[in-house]
Amino acid sequence: MDHILTYAQAEPTGAVTYAAASGLLSSVWLLVAIPLVSAAILLLLGRRADRWGHWLGVAAIGVAFVLGVASFLQLRGLENKSVELSLWDFIAVGNLRVDFGLLFDPLAAVFVLLITGVGFLIHLYAVEYMAHDEGRRRFFAYFNLFVAAMLLLVLGNNYVMLYFGWEGVGLASYLLISFWYGRPSAATAGKKAFLMNRVGDAGLAIGIFIMFATLGTTQYDEVFTGVGGLAGGTVLVLGLLLLLGACGKSGQFPLQAWLPDAMEGPTPVSALIHAATMVTAGVYLIARSNPIFSANATLQLVVVSVGAVTLLMGCLIGAAKDDIKRVLAWSTVSQIGYMFLGVGLGGGAYALAIVHLLAHGFFKANMFLGAGSVMHGMNDQVDIRRFGGLSKYMKVTWITFMMGWLAIIGMFPFSGFFSKEPIIVAAFEREGWTAWLFGGAALLGAGLTAFYMTRLFVLTFHGPKRWTEDIEHPHESPKLMTIPLILLAIGSVGAGFLLATSVPDWLTATAGLGGQTEGHEAVLSHVVITVLSLLVTVLGAGLAWMLFRAGTATEPQPAGVLVTAARRNLYTDAFNEAVFEKPGIFLTRALVFLDNRGVDGLVNGLAAAVGGGSGRLRRLQTGFVRSYATSILTGALLVVAAFLAVQAGWLA
Amino acid sequence: MTPDYYLILAAVLFTIGAVGVLVRRNAIVLFMCVELMLNAANLTLVTFSRINGDLNGQIMAFFVMVVAAAEVVIGLAIIMSIFRTRRSASVDDANLLKY
Amino acid sequence: MSDFPFLSVLTVAPLVGALVVVLLPRRRPELAKQVALGWSLLVLALSVVMWVSFQVDGDRLQFRESYPWIPTWGVNFTFAADGIALVMLMLIAVLVPLVILASWHDAESSKRSVPVYFALLLVLECTMIGVFAAADVFLFYVFFEVMLVPMYFLIGSYGGHQRQYAAVKFFLYSLVGGLFMLAAVVGLWVVGGKTLDWQTLTQVDISTGTERWLFLGFFLAFAIKAPFFPFHTWLPDAGGAAPAGAAALLVGVLDKVGTFGILRYCLPLFPEASKWFAPWALALGLIGIIYAALLAVGQSDLKRLVSYTSIAHFGFIGVGIFAFTTQAGTGAVLYMLNHGLATGLLFLVVGMLIARRGSALIKDFGGAGKLMPLLAGVLFFAGLASLALPGTAPFVSEFLVLIGTFTVNKPVAVIATLGIILAAAYVLWMVQRTTQGTLNPELTGIEAMRRDLSLREKVVVAPLIALVLLLGFYPKPVTDVINPAVQATMQDVGKTDPAPEVGSVQEASR
């Protein structure tokens, strides 16, 4: 892996400059516009588009993919591989200038290809998967909206554009998670996702404010050029806030709880949004902001720690779950932990994380779609204890899922091996004891990943049948679903090697990405690490095979402390409920009471006091003429007396 | 002869009128007491006019008379209509207009 | 064209329209509605012409007209508009026709006269235009108070549950604030050299103590009108009881008089006092953002919920004004416009929902999206605009307010940013409880709940949605109009934007 780790010698303090777009690249805005227009058409036409709407959705992404490939080829031939396209002044107030502008550079380009490429396959798959759903047109509208927002996120040339797309994908994710909004669980899961994302978004927003307050700009090039002049503390705070945003979007600790619940959405959504693309936006943000993160060692340590904690946590919980989609979801959490580990290590590891991200996009989308195919054949059953022996009935799904499984556990020569191994090696290249800590964590994670993914695979496709009574003969999915599976499986097999050898070089042209690598020697030699990681993988997989070869009980079994904790998501949900949700509800109730009785009570009390006082005073109106006459006379006498008093000088 | 006696007389008349308004119940008597007070005021006006040697006081007295006449017309009409509906001229019985 | 007396004509025209509507034959209420709608569209057309003839880089106050009124007091009918007022006038002109169209059948459910309802809406439009167009403090005060009258009748005669209570509370509350302002106006007249012309008064120097008292008088009236915490409790009552159309105008426009007044009167006339009181005002705004958002989460009535969200938004506007930076100030003014569009839309949609269900309680809904997907979609969109999602107009304004505040006061901006999380909470929870989840079985029995948006209702929401989206992607035409006025106001206060802490980045790279 040496050639990967020492490829880049970019100037760490050099000014970042982008070239203006020309030729074909001046139409990169179409990448965002086409899916957006398609989404708008599908939403506006309503039922009139029901018959052909899904094909419009697929076509829009297909066209975007073709355009993406063409732009990518164009970019390859350019000297300065960072091309900027300013569309219009978004905000221009005082000295704040925010461009509605796009940036097409190597980093953005690989994301565009991933989003449109994998996105196209998943769109295709969804045509069949959603065929029996009356809301299919709406589904494709939201799906296209998501792609548009995601492309805006990766194509923006400043942080406000990034935030624009950032919240846009959050919206699309919300809409798709609660796509079956009639189910209370789906509606709640969508809301939870949006809220936890908003917590991260608030961090990101404050980060943008800091950039403006200190550097006077939010444009990438100006921020990256100026970040060297910032005080260390400012950079740390800025980076932590960006990290908070990244954690929210990528389901990293401590904002991971929404991602498994997001599986309430249709399976293609889980594949595209909650596995392949949107959840990796956090990795994109950190990679894109690498000049900020590289500028502070503490910051990098925090990112690495978040990644390590999350990857272990995801593995542990994933090993205890029985819902096929939730196992995959926790495995996504864990794999993104690897990517965070990578981007946190800095230097050449940025590129490694991106490689893993791309490879993961292929094999995880493959497995999610495979899971969808299984559910399709099994009456939407998701409990892996109720599967078993499906390899005979769903050959294509079985083979393609196997490719994904071998890829994710990092078996040679599948893609996970080429993308994950270098990250483990890089983790061992840190200074002193942290090398052992993070390297060990990465290695342990690899073993655990092998264990729980093998468990999933074996319980689903092998062993005795444990189906529910209503299923007689599971069927393989139609062609439109298996073709994307096959294509993604090919990606799971071959992409790793291709990506690992080409992408890092390609990414060097991205501003600052891959800057100076620190020359630490790994505490173990590369060969030893590789052998070790293959060994733990085989151990984990073998253990799972031994344990689950003969199937498993169909009812929940009593378990020890660790497994019980893992089944309950390590009590993080309970923590959130006890610390935020319940006190929050209590607080709002208390405030409603306070507002009605306290603040409004004061107002109404004042009104009541005036009213009550008047009620007393009006008793003076007795209705007897003589009492009025008496008061008039008394008044007159008083006036006279006063006059006399003044006259006689008694008051003087 | 000093004009003081006129003033004293006016004061006495006014007091009689005021006390009458306060203690009597019959509306007609009340009315006459009010007239008494008005005329006591007239008497002082005329007296001061004489003392000061200008006619303003006497003109004022005429105004008071006109107002008093108008007041009597309306007042008596009200008393009449009350008497017709309630069969009583006592002011204490007409106490419905209260809080 | 710029010599045309736009502002006085715009003020008087709706009043004439109201007279016409009332004088129409009683037996034909449909005709009254059509005339009212046509008249308000005329006003809109005239406003568009005025918008076009406004010169962005021209004088601060344009379209100035002055007619003598009470010469002995030095009071004139003076109208003039700066960029801020122009934007608000435009908002009124856009909202009133839509409100008339949205309230097409609202007045029929009450026992009062239908034409009078529409006449009252036009009278309200007249007073609202007058209050924004006035450039004489006394004239402003008169419109400020007269504005209460049509709204009082709209709530008290045509409102829902507890309308009398809400109407009286609204009226008294505003009147009390108005009285403080009247005292301050008299004080201003005395110290300002017996004139109440705004432009002259900006040049007057006032001693510190007097200035603070006068500021307080004005500020109290505006804080009640806006409303800021702790003077906010009339709004949920009034917003909850008013018919949806009137509520949209109440929250969308009428309350903006408060924040507009602060920008137009408090800051330029009492700059030193404004700076002195700024920390307090910021604190009030901040409390409003968090406190009202939490209260909105806890509401059980749809219209009260929307009212509380508005109080939270007014907190943002208050923070933006008193941060004294160009970005925050422009953001605050833009917020006034965007909030009018977004919350106006939200109120109208909620009104459509309530009209169908016959109840405003959230628990009476549930799963309504199954029956009326389009209406549920529009409700969701209005909610998104309310939580300031990028792509909708309020995002730009909220972003500007926060980023502008951050450059001068970091803690305030950070706490205010927490408000965006709460905004997501109250909007999404409201949407979930009304349109998502299992279908409430009671709803299926109600015939009206099966009717999705009618053509008339589509025409009402479509322009608002289009405007919210347009200004969300391309706010520049409006910010360009607002910006000079805000910059002039900042100059009056004597504040300049802080330079970036690490300067001269732009020069280096551009």
Q: What level of helicity do the residues of chain C show?
A: over 70%
- Kindly state the mean pLDDT of chain B as a whole number? 90
Number of strands of chain C: 2
Query: How would you classify the quaternary structure?
Result: heterotrimer
- Distance from first to last alpha carbon of chain B: 52 Å
Instruction: Report the span from N to C terminus of chain C.
Output: 41 Å
Range of strand content of chain C: under 5%
Largest sheet composition of chain B: none
Low-confidence stretches of chain C: 504-510
Helix vs. strand class of chain C: mainly alpha
Shape of chain C: globular
Class from secondary-structure proportions of chain B: mainly alpha
Which spans of chain B of ≥5 residues are poorly predicted at pLDDT below 50? none
- Gross morphology of chain B is elongated
Strand residues, percent of chain B: under 5%
Cα Rg of chain B: 16 Å
Task: Summarize the amount of helix of chain B as a percent range.
Answer: over 70%
Q: Strands across the major sheet of chain C, in which order?
A: 1-2
Radius of gyration of chain C: 22 Å
Helix run count of chain C: 22
What is shown here, in short?
By secondary structure, chain B is mostly helical.
Provide the fold topology.
The complex is a heterotrimer of chains A (652), B (99) and C (510).
Chain A (H helix, E strand, L loop, with lengths): L1 H4 L13 E2 L8 H17 L7 H24 L6 E11 L2 E9 L1 H24 L6 H20 L3 H19 L6 H32 L4 H7 L5 H19 L7 H4 L5 H10 L4 H8 L1 H4 L3 H24 L3 H22 L3 H29 L17 H14 L6 H13 L4 H30 L17 H29 L18 H23 L12 H7 L4 H46 L7 H24 L4
Parallel strand pairs in A: 1-2
Antiparallel strand pairs in A: 2-3
Helix pairs in contact in A: 2-3, 2-5, 3-4, 3-5, 4-5, 4-11, 4-16, 4-20, 5-6, 6-7, 7-9, 9-12, 9-14, 11-16, 12-15, 14-15, 14-19, 14-22, 15-16, 15-18, 15-19, 16-17, 16-18, 16-20, 17-19, 17-20, 18-19, 18-20, 19-21
Chain B lengths: L3 H20 L3 H26 L3 H31 L13
Helix pairs in contact in B: 1-2, 2-3
Chain C lengths: L5 H18 L5 H25 L8 E9 L4 E7 L1 H20 L11 H20 L3 H10 L1 H11 L4 H29 L6 H4 L6 H18 L8 H8 L2 H11 L1 H14 L1 H27 L4 H21 L3 H32 L15 H14 L6 H16 L1 H26 L5 H4 L10 H19 L2 H18 L11 H5 L1
Helix pairs in contact in C: 1-2, 1-4, 2-3, 2-4, 3-4, 3-11, 3-15, 3-20, 3-21, 4-5, 4-6, 5-7, 6-7, 7-9, 7-10, 9-12, 9-13, 10-11, 10-14, 11-15, 12-13, 12-21, 13-14, 13-18, 14-15, 14-17, 14-18, 15-16, 15-17, 15-20, 15-21, 16-18, 17-18, 17-20
